[in-house]
């Protein structure tokens, strides 16, 4: 997953701007450090068959560069930041969110990992995180049912430790917080800042951590983060077009990715994001997709009725859905 200080550069190195003369501009992506599973489905050197471009009414979106068959694994993605849910803290790997055996072999500073590799890679943020006492911050998040501040906390640790730039998430669509969210955000911000200060993190190290930064990152994370639900079932089951209906065992955490964040929403999607054994995301085609067609995923529970879907999309993501299904009030 997150390997060494070069990873931020490499995430963005893979984003090649092409076709600069034509409007709208498109971006293509290479598979980078994709897992062995993805390499089964597509040649390792081949970029995924997608490009990011501009849609007519939904900002940027992801488009197919060739015909994609139903059930095809389009690409995989590693998170830029992830965090276990507080209820899963002791049952999943602190780094990759994989389910842990009853007696985890790799434990350090009160947290457990599924492997030595995950333990090593967590050093990027954990060296800073473990210096502070997070009990008040975590209790506050638990009491108020907040999950996104945990992602901001981990992201801040990555910034302090020098493994991420404070502007790494600026490429994601910005958003604003509603007036009701502002007091909570302010409280979280002061808790986060004072927790770092109490741990003797210097003012110089915390220079990026302003209320404005916190609020901007939190708002971006709110509309771009994914709830990670590990699927039950074999890889072969998931490669079938039944992927959208594969049962999940419940959320083990939340994560933010770059490329998956460019997928727009549709209540009758042609693509689906899923997780098998850990936080590495897989984007799969749910039906045949033509070259040039936009790929869209469903952000919410598609089984809800029209009104409920519109309410959640408006409140949670700030847009009114005009997909074909919504247009016919289904
Ligand atoms: C995760 S981002 C998707 C990528 C985004 N379009 C961008 O330019 O980065 C989610 C945001 O995209 C926009 N969006 C996604 N699906 C949409 C849709 N079906 N109709 C209108 N806007 C949509 C909304 O602004 C939403 O808050």
UniProtKB/TrEMBL annotation:
UniProt organism field: Cinchona calisaya
Pfam (any one): SET
Residue ranges of every copy of the SET domain listed in the record: 48-300
Region (Disordered): 23-52
UniProt name for this protein: SET domain-containing protein
């Amino acid at each position: 997953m997150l390997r060494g200080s070069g990873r931020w550069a490499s995430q963005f190195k893979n984003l090649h701007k092409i076709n600069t003369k034509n409007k709208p501009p498109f971006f293509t992506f290479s598979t980078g450090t994709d897992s062995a599973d993805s390499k089964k489905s597509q040649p390792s050197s081949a970029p995924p068959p997608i490009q990011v471009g501009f849609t007519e009414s939904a900002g940027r979106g992801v488009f197919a560069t060739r015909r994609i068959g139903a059930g095809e694994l389009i690409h995989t993605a590693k998170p830029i930041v992830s965090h276990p849910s507080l209820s899963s803290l002791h049952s999943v790997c602190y780094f990759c969110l994989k389910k842990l055996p009853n007696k985890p072999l790799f434990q350090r500073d009160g947290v457990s990992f599924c492997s030595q590799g995950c333990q090593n890679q967590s050093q990027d943020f954990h060296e800073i995180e473990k210096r502070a006492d997070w009990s008040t911050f975590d209790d506050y998040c638990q009491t108020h049912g907040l999950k996104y501040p945990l992602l901001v906390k981990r992201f801040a640790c990555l910034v302090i430790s020098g493994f991420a730039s404070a502007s790494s998430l600026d490429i994601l669509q910005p958003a604003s917080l509603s007036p009701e969210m502002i007091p909570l955000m302010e409280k979280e911000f002061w808790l986060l800042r004072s927790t770092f200060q109490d741990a003797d993190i210097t003012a110089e190290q915390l220079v990026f951590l302003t209320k404005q930064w916190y609020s901007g990152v939190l708002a971006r994370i709110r509309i771009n983060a994914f709830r990670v639900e590990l699927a039950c079932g074999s890889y072969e089951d998931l490669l079938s077009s039944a992927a959208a209906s594969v049962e999940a065992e419940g959320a083990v955490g939340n994560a933010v990715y770059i490329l998956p964040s460019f997928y727009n929403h549709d209540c009758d999607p042609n693509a689906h994001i899923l997780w098998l054994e850990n936080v590495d995301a897989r984007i799969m085609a749910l039906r045949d997709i033509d070259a040039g067609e936009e790929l869209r995923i469903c952000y919410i529970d598609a089984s809800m009725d029209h009104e409920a879907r519109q309410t959640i999309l408006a409140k949670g993501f700030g847009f009114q859905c005009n997909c074909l299904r919504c247009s016919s009030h289904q």
